[in-house]
């Protein structure tokens, strides 16, 4: 048998949880400066929820005597659900921005304006008692929308996204149970606003807490991803540094071995780079490095990996790519880079490359592949602005046999 408690404590506790979460987000916001817009919108959603709890608390019979009238009933019954709808919509917008890792634009707030305005327009023409029930489809719509966003963009934020999805699933299930119980419950006096304690605790405390904790966990997952990305990336060119490239190679090799595919690798060296530095300055040399890396990154597949191997030398890993395919890709990149100057007043930039390929099944370390590509690059540097290729399967097979 269910027992009932007064909702004032639950509403107060819900507002308190909201205040604590706002404080926590303000504290962590400087750590996640690049996600500042998403954090600010989530704080706005929390403040909307706190305002809704305060409006409900100030209604006669909750914490104030029945004879007192702080906010007109017709205003409160319109404002409270509108704030709840706005909070749910703002949370969806914030999560979409956080998980997609982009800034805020005016269009991001359109769903909140549309949903809240639609609810207000519909509810305005209804009696006060009928306004809150129509909040349910609007709020559930926001939750389903948020769940879809989180599930679609969950790849790099699994823990935080999982916590958020579980919290929203709880809200939707409990809202459905509450709707069924309400429809089948005997009529209660109008003054009886008591709620089942378990339901109230979950809706007012557990779910908002889980949602905000999930958001904070997602923030730190994003921060961790950024730190790892920075530690593996060459800051000047945007290509992988040597450490990052080796990590990507170690991850790509087992996948290629499972598919019995070939692995191709190219070492690329910018021709006459020292003379560019000497005649135009190191800043011009940096511009050339950025130009070449951007051209290569724009011309390769999503599974290919470009690293800065050292100085003016780049390394390009092409999994599941035969020697001939890899050589054609590198030669196409060579033609694209030499087709136009970096900018006006610059000489045409060219590069030389050595391309080596081997079946992944006979490859255990990157060293033989790099060594072969380096020897081929040495040959290409004799004439410059060309690509030299070779398969090294036979050499690796002889090395394994002699070992």
From TrEMBL:
Gene3D superfamilies: 3.30.70.270. It holds the Pfam family GGDEF. One of its GO terms (molecular function) is diguanylate cyclase activity. InterPro entries: Diguanylate_Cyclase, GGDEF_dom, Nucleotide_cyclase, Rev_trsase/Diguanyl_cyclase. The chain crosses the membrane at residues 12-32, 39-58, 78-97, 109-128, 134-153, 160-181, 201-220. Residues 261-392 form the GGDEF domain. Keywords: Membrane, Transmembrane, Transmembrane helix. It catalyses: 2 GTP = 3',3'-c-di-GMP + 2 diphosphate. Its EC number is 2.7.7.65. SUPFAM superfamilies: Nucleotide cyclase (SSF55073). It comes from the Bacteria. This is diguanylate cyclase. It comes from Rhizobium chutanense.
């Amino acid at each position: 048998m269910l027992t009932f408690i007064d909702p004032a404590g639950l509403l107060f506790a819900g507002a308190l949880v909201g205040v604590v979460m706002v404080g926590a987000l303000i504290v962590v916001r400087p750590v996640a400066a690049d996600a500042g817009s998403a954090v600010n919108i989530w704080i706005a959603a929390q403040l909307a929820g706190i305002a809704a709890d305060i409006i409900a608390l100030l209604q006669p019979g909750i914490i104030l005597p029945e004879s007192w009238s702080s906010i007109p009933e017709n205003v409160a019954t319109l404002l409270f659900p509108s704030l709840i709808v706005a909070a749910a919509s703002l949370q969806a917008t914030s999560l979409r921005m956080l998980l997609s890792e982009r800034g805020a634009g005016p269009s991001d707030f359109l769903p909140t304006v549309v949903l809240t305005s639609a609810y207000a327009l519909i509810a305005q023409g209804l009696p006060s008692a009928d306004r809150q029930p129509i909040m349910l489809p609007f709020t559930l719509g926001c939750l389903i929308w948020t769940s879809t966003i989180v599930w679609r963009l969950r790849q790099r934020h699994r823990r935080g996204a999982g916590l958020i999805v579980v919290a929203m699933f709880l809200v939707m299930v409990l809202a459905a149970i509450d709707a069924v119980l309400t429809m089948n419950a005997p009529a209660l006096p109008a003054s009886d606003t008591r709620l089942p304690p378990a339901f109230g605790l979950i809706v007012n405390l557990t779910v908002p807490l889980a949602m905000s904790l999930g958001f904070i966990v997602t923030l730190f997952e994003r921060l961790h991803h950024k730190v790892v990305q920075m530690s593996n990336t060459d800051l000047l060119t945007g290509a992988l540094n040597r450490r990052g490239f080796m990590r990507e190679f170690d991850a790509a090799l087992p996948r290629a071995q499972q598919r019995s595919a070939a692995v191709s690798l190219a070492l690329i060296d910018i021709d006459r780079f020292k003379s560019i530095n000497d005649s135009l300055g190191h800043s011009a040399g940096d511009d050339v490095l950025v130009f070449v890396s951007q051209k290569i990154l724009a011309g390769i597949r999503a599974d290919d990996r470009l690293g800065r191997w050292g100085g003016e030398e780049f390394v390009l890993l092409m999994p599941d790519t035969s020697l001939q395919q890899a050589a054609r890709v590198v030669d196409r990149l060579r033609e694209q880079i030499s087709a136009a100057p970096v900018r006006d007043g610059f000489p045409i930039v060219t590069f030389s490359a050595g391309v080596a390929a081997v079946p992944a099944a006979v490859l255990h370390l990157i060293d033989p592949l790099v060594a072969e590509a380096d020897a081929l690059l040495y040959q290409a540097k004799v004439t410059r602005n060309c690509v030299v290729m070779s398969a090294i399967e036979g050499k690796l097979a002889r090395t394994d046999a002699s070992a």
